Amino acid sequence: MALPVAGLVALGLAGCSQDVVQGWLPTQPGTTNHVDSVISLWVNSWIVLLIVGAITWGLTIWAIIVYRRRKGQTGLPVQLRYNMPIETFFTVVPLILVLGFFAFTVKTQAPIEARDPNPDVTIEAYGKRWSWDFNYLNENVYSAGIQVQTDSSGNPIDSTVPVLYLPVGKTVEIDLKSRDVIHSFWVIDFLYKKDMIPGRTNYMTFTPEKIGEYQGKCAELCGEYHSMMLFKVKVVSQADYDAYIQSQRQAGDVGRLGDDYNTNQNEPGAAVPNPATAEQG
Length: 281
Prior knowledge:
With 281 residues, the chain is of the alpha+beta class. The protein is built from 6 helices and 10 strands.
C-alpha cells in the first residue's frame, strides 16, 4: 500500500518548483558542503511522514465507515479487545519509524559535527549583547561589531550590521563563544545553528561553496535587543578575502579580542576569590 503512495508523492514532486522540492527550506542546493544532505533528510522525512499519515487517515476513515452504527441498530457495536497481532503492529511499526529517523539523522549529522583537523580558515566568533566580534585567527586581525542601529521606521541600517567574510571553497572552522549569556550562531541559508555558551567553546566546520551574501542572526532569546543581534556572511573569492584582511590591518584592527573582554567574571575555570584575603584587605 505504501509503494503506490510513494510513487504518487514522487510524481507530484517531479512537477513542483525548486522551493517545493526542497521543502521550502530557505536556501539553495550547494550553498555549503552540508546543505544538500540536510535538504535530503528534511524532504525524505516528510515523504515518509506523509505516507504514514495517508495510511493512518485511510484506515481511520475506513473504520468509521465500515463500523458505523446502521439505521435501526442500538447499543454499542461489537468491541474488540486483546488483539495481539494488531497491538504488536501498532508497537513495532512506530518503533521501526523512530529507529529509522534516528539512524538517518545520525548519518546526516555525524559529518556536520565532525571537526576538520586542519581547516583552511579558523575564525573565533564571540556573541555579546547585542552584537558580534570576529577574530580571524590565521591572519591575526579582528572585526569588532556594534549593536545594529535602526532608522526611523525601526528597520536595521545596513551599514551597521557586522559582517563575517569567508573565502569560497575553503574549509572553515568557527570557534563559537559567548561574552555574557547564551546566544546561538545561525546562518539561515547554511541550515545550521549552534549555541554559544559562556565558559565553553563550540565548533562549526563547513565549506562555503557559493559566492554571495547570507543573513545571520542570534537564534537564542538573549535579552531586550535580541531581535537586533544580526550579522551578515559574505562568501567571497580568495582575492577579495585577502583584500578584506589587508583592509583590517590598515585600519589597525590587528590582534585578537579575547576572553579579557567577557562581562562574566565567574565562568568555569576562573580563579575563586579567597574570603580570608578579602577580609584582610
